[in-house]
Specification:
The chain is 16% helix and 45% strand. The chain is an alpha+beta fold. A twelve-stranded antiparallel sheet has the order 5-4-3-2-1-12-11-10-9-8-7-6. The longest helix has 24 residues.
Length: 196
């Protein structure tokens, strides 16, 4: 179906489009929408704190827990970066740049609990590529021999490997760790701080 506009109608539609654009701009200014999102300070849900360091960049911060669902705890920095851990094992990051979108850590958790006798177990991670597409990376992991409360996990993929180290307390909880995040970020070191 073809619609023909009279010359006056075309000018009217162009004017209406300009008014709508100006109105959107006015609404944006009124609501203070500038195209950037301000960092929201953490609203801690408990007294625990987590010290995190990225050795490759020298960055470090102390994070507070801001959400908990089952075994997953989300920790946040003052400037809005979040790290999600499932029972102490890293499963996601947001705000670091080359973020870990998700990680299936069932095999790692079973190995840490001593309930998985398998010599190897899968570990699957997802990342966003430069075109915002989800990319999955699969690893084969195994536990390496070491001291009782220091557990080393070695994982290999087709083109990259990682070695994660977990330090456990007497109850089997992770108190310190060195976990790989991504190729650009490399490793993250964590340490639970004593409660004051």
């Amino acid at each position: 179906m073809n619609v023909r506009l009279r010359p006056g109608h075309a000018a009217l539609l162009a004017g209406l489009a300009l008014l709508l654009a100006a109105g959107c701009d006015r609404v944006s200014r009124t609501l203070n929408l500038t195209g950037t999102v301000a960092a929201v300070p953490p609203q801690p849900i408990g007294p625990a704190r987590l010290r995190v360091r990225l050795p490759a960049t020298g960055a470090q911060a102390t994070l507070a827990p801001v959400a908990r669902n089952g075994g997953v705890t989300v920790w946040q920095t003052l400037d809005g970066i979040t790290l999600s851990f499932r029972d102490g094992v890293l499963i996601a990051t947001r705000g670091l740049g080359d973020d870990l979108m998700s990680a299936d850590v069932d095999g790692t958790l079973a190995m840490l609990r001593g309930s998985d006798r398998a010599t190897q177990y899968p570990h699957i991670r997802s990342y966003l590529d430069g075109e915002d597409r989800t990319v999955f990376r699969s690893f084969q992991c195994r536990r390496e021999a070491g001291p009782d409360r220091q557990i080393t996990e070695r994982c290999v993929s087709t083109d990259v490997g990682m070695t994660n180290i977990y330090w456990l307390d007497g109850a089997g909880e992770i108190t310190r760790s060195r976990q790989w995040v991504s190729p650009a970020i490399d490793y993250m070191e964590t340490e639970r701080l004593p409660r004051e």
